[in-house]
Amino acid sequence: MDCKLWLAFSVWLLLPTSEAGRQMPKLSEKKLCADSECSHPILIARAVQDYYPGDCRFIPIRQGQLIYVYAMLRGRGNLFWAGSVQDSYYGQQEARIGHFPSSVVEETHPLMPASTEVETTNWDFYCN
């Protein structure tokens, strides 16, 4: 009996505890993008403060970093944007698109109008 209990406990310890590979709740049902696939950046923004994400849907941002913004969430999630962080040296940080509060950045360069409303999908909030 002790052996089975020890084996079950050992397996439980090895189970992943991260949020990776699972569906997270949607922040919004719609988003504004430059095109129907949200593949073109809307604007470039600069971080005015550090941001430490609460879960895997969000990206960490350091003050001064440039962020390419691809989508602005609408409705209940309208305080969040989706983008990719660019360090001062290209390739220094892994390119990853995630969400962040619009309040931690300032718009520096508008690129394309965010005139296309697109429904969000489960993949927009999937943690990988």
Outline the fold blueprint.
Layout: H1 2-14, E1 22-23, E2 30-33, E3 43-47, E4 66-73, E5 80-86, E6 97-101, E7 105-110, E8 116-119, E9 126-127
Antiparallel strand pairs: 1-9, 2-4, 2-8, 3-4, 3-7, 4-5, 5-6
Short description:
With 128 residues, the chain is mainly beta.
Give the class from helix and strand content and strand pairing.
mainly beta
Cα-atom radius of gyration: 18 Å
Q: From N to C, what is the helix and strand string?
A: HEEEEEEEEE
Strand content: 25-35%
Q: What share of residues is helical?
A: 10-25%
Descriptive notes:
By secondary structure, the chain is mostly beta strands. The chain has a domain at 38-125: Roll (SH3 type barrels), CATH 2.30.30.40. Helices cover 10% and strands 34% of the residues. It has one helix and nine strands. Strands 2, 3, 4, 5, 6, 7 and 8 form a seven-stranded antiparallel beta sheet that branches. The protein is globular. The model is unreliable at 5-19 (pLDDT under 50).
